[in-house]
Backbone:
């Protein structure tokens, strides 16, 4: 049975390299547009929160970063598993490109959470908050993956060994998350202010959704850049790449 | 398959007992780390009782990391690991046998030592069996995780420092449930809940862990 072409070609480095070249400007400009409009709507147009005043506005960076930071590990693990099972080198390249981005988004989420936590909780860091602690563990998982990958000379071996770690990691993520949550509900101090679940109004929600979409597109843009870098590094001896480099007008 | 498991187990136990100094190192490490904490904190009985369970758990975690990081190193160096992998025995069975052997010789003494150290931290007597039992349920998972780290880094010359980075974040649930069991029993409450969770994790790890270890060994020795 012939494979459908659209799926088949996604495993081919030259095709994906050119596809990234075509898509990148569109995604980049759209991401910029969404981020600028969303930031303006969130920081200027949205009304201040009745409890937190203007300091709630940090959620327009915090929530999208946290959303991406926690979910990108799933993308990493899926890409790594696809690469491991079907031996698709490009999937390994995707996993390798996702890891530092995911770690960066977790760091942004933790930093903005700390900046928000100082006036709200009275402390930058709160061990009693399940999300903070599980993000920290997740950051360690990203860093472990990157460290393992970096310690191998042979790229093929690095790909496959780190893929096993990514899959083991994703199996553990829910276990870690729920154990940390259970731990913090037992140790919850009375000093922490608890806000209700987001009963967020529409004029606060729309900028947030725009920011999330903007962050996702921004991530895709960054991923395409990193992926092209990975492809160039992996295929540096390939003829198509030398042709591309010597092509007039490039 | 069962007899292969027993043969490899016996072989590893024999090797371990011929190198008694290596056997004692993790245990001494555990003892020394645990006795550094009272020096660093204070000899105050109330404070030591508060931190005791946590300190001993972290010390146990670190010393089992030390005990198992070289699990496959010697066999990989002299080529016997490759021979074992060429044999018709499934690699996962071989890996499970090696992990069991190491668990028996390095971790079981640690479990036996735990109540003594816990007593020296002024923990109440009724907590001691709970702590030993929690450790007994948590260490199979821990050993499988550390063995996985050792398998992932088997082809690296200096894998030791990176294993901690890979494995320690994954041990957070063990630490949480283990210290929780000690905490509950020190307040006179039943500690069955966290112990059941530790047992569940152990079953999960022992069932699926060897498969991941086998995959890692196959890639590592490519």
Residues:
């Amino acid at each position: 049975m012939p494979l459908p072409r659209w799926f088949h070609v996604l495993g081919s480095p030259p095709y994906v390299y050119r596809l990234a070249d075509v898509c990148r400007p569109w995604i980049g400009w759209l991401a910029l547009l969404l981020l600028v409009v969303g930031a303006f709507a969130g920081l200027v147009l949205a009304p201040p929160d009745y409890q937190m005043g203007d300091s709630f506005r940090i959620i327009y960076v915090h929530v999208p970063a946290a959303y991406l930071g926690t979910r990108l590990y799933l993308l990493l693990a899926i890409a790594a598993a696809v690469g491991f099972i079907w031996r698709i080198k490009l999937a390994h390249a995707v996993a390798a490109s996702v890891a530092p981005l995911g770690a960066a988004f977790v760091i942004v989420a933790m930093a903005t959470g700390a900046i928000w936590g100082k006036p709200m909780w009275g402390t930058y860091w709160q061990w009693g908050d399940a999300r903070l602690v599980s993000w920290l563990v997740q950051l360690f998982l990203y860093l472990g993956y990157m460290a393992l990958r970096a310690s191998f000379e042979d790229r093929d071996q690095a790909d496959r060994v780190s893929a096993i770690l990514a899959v083991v990691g994703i199996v553990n993520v829910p276990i870690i998350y729920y154990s940390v949550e259970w731990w913090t509900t037992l140790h919850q101090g009375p000093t922490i202010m608890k806000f209700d679940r987001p009963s967020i109004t529409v004029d606060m929600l729309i900028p947030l959704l725009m920011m999330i979409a903007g962050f996702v597109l921004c991530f895709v843009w960054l991923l395409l850049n990193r992926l092209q870098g990975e492809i160039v590094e992996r295929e540096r001896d390939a003829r198509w790449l030398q042709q591309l480099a010597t092509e007039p007008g490039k | 398959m069962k007899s292969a498991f027993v043969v490899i187990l016996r072989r590893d136990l024999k090797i371990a007992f011929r190198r008694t100094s290596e056997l004692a190192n993790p245990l001494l490490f555990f003892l020394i780390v645990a006795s550094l904490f009272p020096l660093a904190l204070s000899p105050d009985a109330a404070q030591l009782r508060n931190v005791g369970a946590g300190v001993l758990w972290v010390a146990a975690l670190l010393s089992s990391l030390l005990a198992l990081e070289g699990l496959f190193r010697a066999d990989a160096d002299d080529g016997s690991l490759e021979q074992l992998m060429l044999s018709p025995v499934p690699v996962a069975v071989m890996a499970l046998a090696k992990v069991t052997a190491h668990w028996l010789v390095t971790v079981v003494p640690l479990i036996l030592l735990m109540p003594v150290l816990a007593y020296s931290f002024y923990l109440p007597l009724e907590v001691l069996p709970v702590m030993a039992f929690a450790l007994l349920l948590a260490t199979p998972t821990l050993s499988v995780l550390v063995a996985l780290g050792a398998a992932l880094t088997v082809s690296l010359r200096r894998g030791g420092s990176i294993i901690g980075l890979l494995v320690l974040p994954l041990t957070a649930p063990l630490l949480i449930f283990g210290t929780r069991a000690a905490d509950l029993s020190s307040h006179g409450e039943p500690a069955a809940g966290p112990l059941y969770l530790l047992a569940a994790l152990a079953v999960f790890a022992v069932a699926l862990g060897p498969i991941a270890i086998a995959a890692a060994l196959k890639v590592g020795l490519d």
